């Protein structure tokens, strides 16, 4: 139902727009009969993990889909990043954004490295050569860029900067499966890239991840590190870990890959609906994707600025009361989370801090159809039309004043 007046808002006591919660992170489940057939195969073979045929098939399929020489499937995206860092033989400090999922940075710490935070670009939300350069010092060994929301993270600028300073460049591509840069699928940028196949990603193994690279030596090291058993050694590495992907994960991810086009097309339809409606919003910008590139349209990210007349958090409260489980990605920023918040000298990241205050992710995925997107847009229209009054009432409520 489209709400027309303030009194109809759940925030002010009316029933919510949706009886069931609509989360931001949504799961693309495969058709049950395909799932059953895939798992029947696993049961018939009795091969559940340790480099089974489905993992091999998935690695081949990812290589072909992305046009890269090597795909190495692992347990999850965080382990993929830690393995990538070890495969690159990094030491000391790695420059990384704080406007990202905590796993990006935690992976570096688990690999024994010191993350150094650089600010991001206000438009792309990613690192740039200009934002990274001031942080390069004698201890720096690498830059870890994040293709946030699937937008390539300044590949040519960062590559030139890293080459000039003898640094390794690698990427967190967790959001970027099926997204392109300069007409090529993300997967072959930097020395190595790490994808997440988490349940909410467009390619889902329930949990899962994958490393991609065009470098034979780095691939051999990554393949070796992912397996703690010495029978699977392809290169000379030090510490190893259990990063193996199971057959169950590979089966799920293969089914996701089979249905990728349909999932992407659904996402694109909903995203375009949001884009059309966002064009008239004052003070609320929908993060847009690069023109002329392939994209998976997994995320609808809003930035709420002062022109909206109400704060990001007010809009969040309003939507959540309606069972639209919008989320403050990424709040408060990794640099404000333990253990990084305890740094002696907190980093100065004005753009990151501004984005952490202003950004809001709204639902997009298989559980959002055009009707639901319309209702969500209608709620934002209503919020903006009555921004002052909503802000006033919420402020009064926070101060304990009735009304
Ligand atoms: C940008 C980013 N990096 C890393 C990760 C970690 O991936 P995983 O959950 O597969 O460990 C995520 C997870 O959602 C992510 O969004």
User: Which assembly state applies to the chains in this document?
Assistant: single chain
Shape: globular
| Total strands | 14
Radius of gyration: 22 Å
Structural class assignment: alpha/beta
In whole angstroms, the N-to-C terminal distance is 25 Å
Just give the CATH class of the largest domain: Alpha Beta
Tally of domains: 2
In CATH terms, the superfamily of the largest domain is Type I PLP-dependent aspartate aminotransferase-like (Major domain)
Spatial sequence of strands, sheet with the most strands? 2-10-9-6-5-3-4
Q: Beta-strand percentage?
A: 5-15%
* Total helical elements: 13
Q: Approximately how much helix is present in the residues?
A: 25-40%
Main sheet: strands, sense, barrel? 7 strands, mixed
Low-confidence stretches: none
Keywords: Aminotransferase, Pyridoxal phosphate, Transferase
Pfam families: DegT_DnrJ_EryC1
InterPro entries: DegT/StrS_aminotransferase, PyrdxlP-dep_Trfase, PyrdxlP-dep_Trfase_major, PyrdxlP-dep_Trfase_small
Family: Belongs to the DegT/DnrJ/EryC1 family.
Describe what you observe in this structure.
There is one protein chain. With 403 residues, the chain is of the alpha/beta class. It folds into 2 domains: 6-24 and 260-326 and 363-398, Alpha-Beta Complex (Aspartate Aminotransferase, domain 1), CATH 3.90.1150; 32-258, Type I PLP-dependent aspartate aminotransferase-like (Major domain) (Aspartate Aminotransferase, domain 2). It contains 13 helices and 14 strands. It has helices at residues 32-45, 53-66, 77-87, 102-110, 129-132, 155-165, 216-225, 247-258, 260-278, 312-321, 350-358, 370-385, 387-398; strands at residues 22-23, 70-74, 93-97, 114-118, 140-146, 168-172, 180-181, 184-185, 193-196, 209-213, 284-286, 300-304, 324-325, 359-362. The strands form 4 sheets. A 7-stranded mixed sheet has the order 2-10-9-6-5-3-4. A 3-stranded antiparallel sheet has the order 11-12-14. Helix 1 (32-45) runs antiparallel to helix 8, helix 3 packs across helix 7 and helix 9 (260-278) runs parallel beside helix 12 (370-385). The longest helix is centred in the C-terminal third of the chain and has 19 residues, at 260-278. It is globular, with a radius of gyration of 22 Å. The model has no long low-confidence stretch (mean pLDDT 96). The site of pyridoxal-5'-phosphate has 14 residues, from helix 3 and helix 4.
């Amino acid at each position: 139902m489209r709400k027309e007046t303030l009194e109809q808002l759940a925030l002010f006591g009316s029933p919510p727009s949706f009886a069931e919660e609509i989360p931001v992170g949504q799961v693309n489940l495969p058709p049950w009969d395909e799932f059953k057939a895939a798992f029947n195969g696993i049961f018939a073979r009795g091969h559940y993990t340790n480099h089974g045929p489905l993992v091999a098939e998935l690695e081949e399929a990812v290589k072909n889909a992305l046009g890269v020489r090597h795909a190495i499937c692992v347990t999850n995206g965080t382990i993929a990043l830690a393995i990538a860092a070890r495969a690159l033989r990094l030491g000391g400090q790695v420059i990384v954004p704080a406007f990202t999922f905590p796993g990006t940075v935690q992976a570096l710490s688990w690999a024994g490295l010191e993350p150094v935070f650089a600010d991001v670009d206000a438009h792309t939300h990613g690192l740039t050569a200009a934002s990274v350069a001031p942080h390069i010092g004698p201890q720096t060994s690498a830059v870890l860029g994040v293709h946030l929301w699937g937008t390539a993270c300044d590949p040519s600028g960062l590559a030139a900067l890293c080459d000039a300073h003898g640094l390794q460049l690698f990427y967190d591509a967790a959001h970027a499966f099926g997204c392109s840069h300069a007409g090529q699928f993300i997967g072959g940028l930097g020395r190595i890239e790490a994808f997440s196949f988490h349940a909410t990603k467009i390619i889902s193994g329930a949990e899962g991840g994958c490393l991609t690279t065009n470098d034979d030596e780095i691939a051999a090291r990554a393949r070796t590190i992912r397996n703690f058993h010495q029978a699977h050694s392809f290169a000379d590495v030090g510490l190893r870990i259990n990063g193996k992907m199971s057959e169950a994960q590979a089966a799920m991810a293969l089914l996701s890959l089979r249905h990728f086009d349909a999932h992407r097309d659904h996402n694109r339809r909903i995203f375009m609906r949001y884009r059309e409606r966002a064009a008239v919003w004052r003070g609320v910008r929908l993060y847009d994707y690069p023109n002329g590139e392939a994209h998976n349209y997994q995320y609808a990210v809003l930035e709420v600025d002062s022109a909206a007349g109400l704060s990001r958090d007010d809009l969040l409260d309003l939507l959540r009361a309606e069972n639209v489980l919008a989320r403050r990605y990424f709040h408060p920023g990794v640099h404000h989370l333990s253990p990084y918040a305890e740094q002696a000298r907190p980093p100065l990241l004005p753009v990151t801090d501004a984005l952490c205050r202003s950004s809001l992710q709204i639902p997009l995925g298989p559980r959002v159809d055009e009707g639901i997107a319309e209702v969500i847009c209608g709620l934002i229209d209503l919020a903006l039309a009555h921004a002052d009054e909503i802000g006033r009432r919420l402020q009064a409520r926070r101060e304990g004043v009735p009304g």
